[in-house]
Amino acid sequence: MSCALSLSCVQAFGQDAAADKPLKLEQVEQLLTIGWDDAVLAREMLKRGIAFRADAKAIERLSKKKLGAQTRAALSQLDTRAAFQEIQNTKDPNARLSLSRQFLQQYAGGEFAAQAKDLARAAERDVFDQAYQSYLTAPDLPKLTALFTRGDELRVREPDAVTALHLIVRLARAAGRGIYENFYTDLERSRSLANNALQQLDQATDEAAQKLRTENAPALAQLLALYHLRQTPADTAAALKLLERALAPDTLTAKDPVTYWLRALINREQYQKLRAEYAALSPEARTSSTIICQQFAALTNHLIEDYTKVVELGGAANVRQVGTLRDEAVAAVKTISQTPSPCAVPATPPAQRARRVANNAPRTLFIRSKTVYLKQQQLETALLKDTGFQALNWRIVRNEKEADVIAEVTLPFLTWQWTIEVTQPATSVLVGTVQIRENVARNALPKLLPLLVDVFKQARF
Fold first, then answer.
1. 8 Å CB contact between 262 and 244
2. pLDDT tens, 240-294?
3. Where are the alpha helices (DSSP H) in 1-89?
4. Can you tell me the distance from the alpha carbon of 54 to that of 76, in angstroms, rounded to the nearest whole number?
5. How many CB atoms are located within 10 Å of the residue 60 CB?
6. What is the pTM (predicted TM-score) of this model?
7. Structure confidence at residue 7 (pLDDT)
8. What CA–CA distances, in Å, run from 334 to 258, 303, 338, 373, 418?
9. pLDDT tens string 371-392
10. Phi, psi (5° rounding) for residue 419?
11. Are 52 and 83 in contact (CB under 8 A)?
12. What is the DSSP code (8-state) at residue 253?
């Protein structure tokens, strides 16, 4: 009599038979021991499922009970389903990725291989996104480097178009955050990532890409504007065009104070150039320079508008130095409002208005620094050690009211443009301007010194 109909076989199922519950390993062992038909057992297992993993250890254990070919095949099929179900039920992306890779190694040509491959790709992207969000929470160089490595590995594997676009957009935004926070200085790589990301977003037409474009294109335009301002020489025209895109209605960047700060940097640079141009004019030419004076007025209004926006929106900045951003904007508005336009200064020769000193007395210099990255004492010490400055026989003073000239050092927030303006306080006349682009003070100072000394040498008052 077939074991499928015997009392001992029915007893082997126990109460689970009525409930149609998955078979336990011990039940399968018992059924094999009493000689349950191979085809029937395989069919029953596929119908009810199993309550254990049919791994190598379980198969070895069952093989000692004369495991049939059909039952073995059923176990393999059930184990494949269980392994795939485990991937689907796993929430942690790192664990899901690990299980997906194990599945593809063990069941490369199995029933769920294609779906497991899709799950692995999705898990890879989820792991990347998890690292990206962790980086944004507390950005630093080690996290950015690890993110670059992970992103580059995924891009090499030739992901689908949407995933590839997703990756380059995230990498471009991550690099930009490093530039904003001033711990990442690879301008070329940052610019390349942002350019490629924005171009691909503009060219893509599918729905997923359109969503990415809406969320990221204005921010990428803002980043590229910053990169244009940091390059040497700065491309202010290209930067302004990109900022127009960042300031489009209903974009997050239109409410971001950084966008207005960048536009203020452009106007500030134009103001400095115009001021230097005006200082180079003869007193007679300054009297008739109505166009330049109108430009001064327009630029001043633009600067006040943008700096005011920065102050109003300061809390929305996506950078940790939001306090610095707001403070610099407040200080800038104060300086602009308290500093008369160059056109308001009487156009008489500076020599007639300079503070009177004896012919043999040394000129006096006061240094004012408006950046924590290059303190007043650092520049003083460097100048006193410079042979060119020593030959001038000038004296550095600590009282601003005693100075013939004032050298003011600035490094506007988010820029690498070190600027020293040398002015004559008695007349408000600009004696000269020194500008260089460097990412840190130790590289900037050696380049600033000879240029600054040249300004002192050529000063006439």
1. no
2. 999 999 999 999 999 999 999 999 999 988 988 888 888 888 878 877 778 888 9
3. 7-13, 16-19, 25-33, 38-48, 56-63, 69-89
4. 7
5. 10
6. 0.70
7. 40
8. 19, 11, 6, 22, 21
9. 878 889 999 999 999 999 999 9
10. -130, 135
11. no
12. G
